[in-house]
Amino acid sequence: AEVPTVSVAAAPPLRLWQKPIPVVAAVLSAAIVTGLSVLMSIPTRVAPVSRFNYELPGGQAFQVGRVSLVTFSPDGRRFIYNTPGGLFLRSLDTEQAQPLSGTPPTVRNPVFSPDGEWVAYYSSADGRIEKVAVSGGAPVTLSDATMPFGVSWETDETILFGQPGGVMRVSENGGTAELVVEALDGEQVHGPQLLPGGEWILFSSTTVPGISRWDDGTVVAESIETGERRLLITGGSDARYLASGHLVYALESVLFAVAFDLARMEVSGGPVSVVEGVERANNPQGNSGTGHFSVSAGGNLVYVQGGTAVGQERTLALVDRNGRPERLDLPPNQYISPRLSPDGSRLAVQTDGDTAVIWTYDLSGGAAIQRLTADGNSYRPLWSPDGQRIAFASDRDGPISLYWQNSDGSGVPERLTTADERTAHWPEAWSPDGQTMLYKVEQTSAGGWNIQTNEMDLWTLSLENPDEQQVFAADPFPVLEVGGTFSPDGKWLAYTVGDGPAIEYEIWAQPFPPTGERRRISQEFGVMPTWAQDGEELFYRPISQTPGMRQTLRSISVSTTPAFTFSAEQSVSIGDFLSFSYYRSFDIAADRQSVLVVLPAEQTGVGEAPQPQLHVVLNWFEELTARVPLP
């Protein structure tokens, strides 16, 4: 018999949730493993490193002096740069920067708040740390201060700033600033940064004067709880801790980086050069410790390209009053402080480098430039009225004092004054009769050498009796007297007076010897007065308070007989030239028809300097970690 067959439909497959739990688990595990394998096989998409330059709009220039020029917001979406007219804000999604509303023109050391909605800065006009909202509004006062040695705002509660006595801390809401790191005897601190965790403060330290004092400095960290100090780096300044786990710092015109263990508070491995050609701020004694760079929390970098003002190769040129330059046949060097001999046939000039040296040069071109000084550092040459001697400042025997030497190089230098460890003597002017030298006595306050906190007065030295030294102008500090020049008849002396929290410099004149009479003769803020040999004009370099205006020279028509009179001043159309804070970087020819100036070695003429630029590197951490891997 046939066995009947029955057709049975195939059972539908069970859904995953209908299967036994062990089976479900096995399937999910396999899926997860497979998914992870696929994901791991796909390369991680890393934002590429990209670069662009931002050229300041026509006519704008960076702020001069030892101030910080640029800062990136923590989110890396915008940056601020500093001009003589105030702060400008540039967003990465816009083409042009806009003035930061509410900030005065005398702003120094800007820094963003952690949320990027505020900017703190030093107002030199008011002598205060202030903050202003990025969206605009009136500034908010946080603390009184002298010109700070760096400002940082690392947490929502704390702003740090360097002062002569050490590192100060103030609340973001304002109040009385407190000292959290006390400077050692003779020490200057710079660039404080509160490290993550809130216990340690990173800063730079130096204890010596001189051209390269910050390049010879150290980077240290100090605990605000125990006072323990740890040496991290020898040689360099303006160190910053980055979220990448590195310390970066400036040495000469190079940024170096080193891996940093935050938990152990120590560096590992040697420093590596990561960015070359970063400009450094400067002041009369050399670089100020400030590097013109900033890095956002996410790794965007902005910097000003260049070198230190004392580390850049330069040349000299005679420029007529129509702006036509005649470059001198000199090899490129770090020229500064050029001076023409009284008869106009020679010049003396200082060069910087590892050692500051004074040279002489015959303008007829018949001989190569000749080295005049050999020992120690020698600064600021000054010709005697007869051209037979050159006076200068030098540290060859200790603290910076005055010397003179035969201008032909014969004989040995003779010491004229003796400074102590907290003073420096700088030559300013030689009276036309050759009997008196005007010089500046700079005396440090606590915390090392700094132009904003040192007392500076003008003294006279009798060259017939060197023991006879007298104060010529000594208004109580913080009034400063610098940069003197005698009238050709020797009856008047013009000099620079700095007064107020902003140290706003003006040109004044008074009889010599002093009678008590004194009058302001400059219409603008200015420095470096220089009397022409015929006595009919007095030149000076203005300190522009107008947004974006570059600085050149101005002249005042003057007469000293039968009485002192002066008329309205005018611009001298010689174009742009290099300026070095309180070093006079120009001199006037005897006929007043040309000016001796300092130019960049690559610049072909006065007024042809390129418009200032900011260099921006997006996602720079990718380059940094590739060059300096973390252990």
Structure description:
Strands 1-50-25-24 form a four-stranded antiparallel beta sheet, with no helix packed on it. A four-stranded antiparallel beta sheet has the order 2-3-4-5, with no helix packed on it. A hairpin with a 5-residue loop joins strand 44 and strand 45 (537-542). The protein has two domains: 50-309 and 609-627, 7 Propeller (Methylamine Dehydrogenase, Chain H), CATH 2.130.10.10; 314-600, 6 Propeller (Neuraminidase). Residues 1-44, 283-287, 446-452 and 545-551 have low confidence and may be disordered. The protein is mainly β.
Detail the topology: elements first, then pairings.
Elements: H1 21-41, E1 50-55, E2 70-72, E3 78-83, E4 86-91, E5 98-99, E6 107-112, E7 118-123, E8 128-133, E9 140-144, E10 151-152, E11 158-163, E12 166-171, E13 178-182, E14 188-194, E15 200-206, E16 218-223, E17 229-234, E18 237-241, E19 246-251, E20 254-261, E21 266-276, E22 280-283, E23 286-291, E24 293-295, E25 301-303, E26 314-320, E27 325-327, E28 335-340, E29 346-351, E30 357-362, E31 370-371, E32 378-383, E33 389-394, E34 401-406, E35 414-415, E36 423-430, E37 436-443, E38 455-462, E39 469-473, E40 480-486, E41 492-499, E42 504-511, E43 519-520, E44 526-531, E45 537-542, E46 553-559, E47 565-572, E48 586-588, E49 594-600, E50 613-618, H2 621-627
Antiparallel strand pairs: 1-50, 2-3, 3-4, 4-5, 6-7, 7-8, 8-9, 10-11, 11-12, 12-13, 14-15, 15-16, 16-17, 18-19, 19-20, 20-21, 22-23, 24-25, 25-50, 26-27, 26-49, 28-29, 29-30, 30-31, 32-33, 33-34, 34-35, 36-37, 37-38, 38-39, 40-41, 41-42, 42-43, 44-45, 45-46, 46-47, 48-49
